[in-house]
């Protein structure tokens, strides 16, 4: 959607990344994207608003949002690494351990995100960067706050008091994101932290197996995808039959994250962090 430039904050000397909507030097007429400019600006503003409330070692930092000529620029911490998709299909024990620990850290970061009342909604391997500063979850453009049914009409923010009084919180959203990683409820426009757990499960499956659990034709078509969601997860490629196999415990954990019915998924990202760290330690 956007363009990422490497830059320097001349006041601090800090290396930064600048996310813009138009290519440098553009007059604004060249954009080939089908997404309207005001929606893209909305996503960038949303990303800044959410990230400036988040401070966690596994979540990318945002420093500033400003307008330059006719473009909006989001200044982010610079990351020197690559997306986890670079680990796709790794069979080396070290590669697998790195990938599993990376997902454990991702879950740690997302646990903090959820505790603050946000859902990422666009989690996928390309949005998890393994940098020299550790794991960083990026691209909060589609992230949203979780509101209760009662606050939805008034538009007020999530609060812990509400969480204890009324659970579970959900949010009606317009269906945007990368469909293959989207949970069935997300495809219906309904998200909560369990939707991120589903996306994490599909991502972890993809990295370990080397491909997504659904056939290529299915992954981009909402109708086929809805049919695929009805199939039992036991029909997935058996992870324990990979060469070399992965532990049964990890296989079961991944299947549970990928469950169509969210009540069968692990309850929290904090649980996933613990479980994945333990599995990686025993590999
Ligand atoms: N802070 C950063 N430092 C270095 N590289 C980055 C940074 N943020 C993003 N990138 C690179 O740019 C890519 C796109 O970033 P991001 O997903 O935030 O933008 P986007 O506009 O949503 O793009 P896309 O539509 O491709 O997802 C990332 O996959 C990553 O390779
Ligand atoms: Mg992106």
In words, what does this structure look like?
By secondary structure, the chain is an alpha+beta fold. It contains ten helices and eleven strands. The protein has a four-stranded antiparallel sheet with strand order 1-2-4-3, covered by helices on one side. Strands 5-7-8 form a three-stranded antiparallel sheet. α2 runs antiparallel to α6, α2 packs antiparallel against α10 and α6 packs across α9. Bound molecules: adenosine-5'-triphosphate and magnesium ion. The site of adenosine-5'-triphosphate has 16 residues, from β2 and β4. The site of magnesium ion has 2 residues, from loops.
Q: What is the mean pLDDT?
A: 87
Topology as a string of helices (H) and strands (E) = EEHEEEHEEEEHHEHEHHHHH
Strand content: 15-25%
CATH topology description of the largest domain: Transferase(Phosphotransferase), domain 1
Give the low-confidence spans.
Answer: 148-166
Which small compounds were modeled alongside the protein? adenosine-5'-triphosphate, magnesium ion
CATH superfamily (homologous) name of the largest domain: Transferase(Phosphotransferase) domain 1
Strand order of the largest sheet: 1-2-4-3
Q: Helical percent range?
A: 25-40%
Shape: globular
Tally of DSSP β-strands: 11
* Total separate domains: 2
Number of helices: 10
